[in-house]
Amino acid sequence: MTNPAASDQIAPLRRFVAQMTQLVSQSQAEEIVRPKAKALLHELIKTDGWLPDFCTVPHPQYYQQYLLHADPLERFSVVSFVWGPGQATPIHDHMVWGLIGMLRGSEKGQRYARNAAGKLEPIGQEETLLPGDVDEVSPTIGDIHIVKNAFDDQPSISIHVYGGNIGAVKRHVYDPHTGSVKNFVSGYSSPQIPNLWDRSAQVRAELN
Ligand code: FE
Predict the structure, then answer these.
(1) How far is the CA of 89 from the centre of ligand 1 (A)?
(2) Once rounded to an integer, what is the mean pLDDT over residues 151-167?
(3) What separation in Å is there between the alpha carbon of 156 and the centre of ligand 1?
């Protein structure tokens, strides 16, 4: 994607943001919003030409979280999560519902939960996401996991949607050996955010 304004390539993201805004305006109950948001995210990631190039750039050391949109009332946020080769998260939680839509490449995730003794335990098998797949996390369905790029030799990109402004949510990283918990907030890598609103090229074409 090079010149979004000229061909309105970003339209699918604008549509998604508009639909999400309508959705959270009708209800903010997770059991209502999360499944509907999941369907919308499935639709969004069917194609990938809408993602601006500057939101696809990996960092040699750290996975990147480019903000695509934050609802002004902080009811949801949309992030382009870019993995460099071999990059991985620590074990972490989210404290709000989250959706992970695989756009390019592949990522692997392992879920964890605390057992009766309070110790972290892996839950189920490691799962692999492929383009078009959407995974879900939430304090209500399992919120702790570790995620990594499935590839050691290429970047991967997933589109994340959260039930809040994830750049302002207090959450936790876990040490699997000691079980110790540390607070963190993830923040955003973005020096800029996508311009969803310049539709002048289309409108100009319709002038006469
Ligand atoms: Fe996560």
Answers:
(1) 8
(2) 98
(3) 15
Ligand 1 centre and the CA of 93: distance in Å?
6
Structure tokens that stand for 114 in this block: 């605390």
Amino acid letter, residue 101 = G
CA neighbours closer than 13 Å in the CB half-sphere of residue 198: 10
On whether residue 80 sits in a domain, the answer given is yes
**pLDDT tens, position by position, 23-47:** 999 999 999 999 999 999 999 999 9
**How many CB atoms are located within 10 Å of the residue 10 CB?**
23
* Residue 66 belongs to a domain: yes
Distance 2 CA to ligand 1 centre (A): 29
- Cα 49 to averaged position of ligand 1 atoms, centre (Å): 24
Grouping H, G, I as helix, E, B as strand and the rest as coil, residue 68 is strand
Q: Compute the distance between CA of residue 8 and CA of residue 17 in angstroms, rounded to an integer.
A: 15
Domain at 88, CATH number: 2.60.120.10
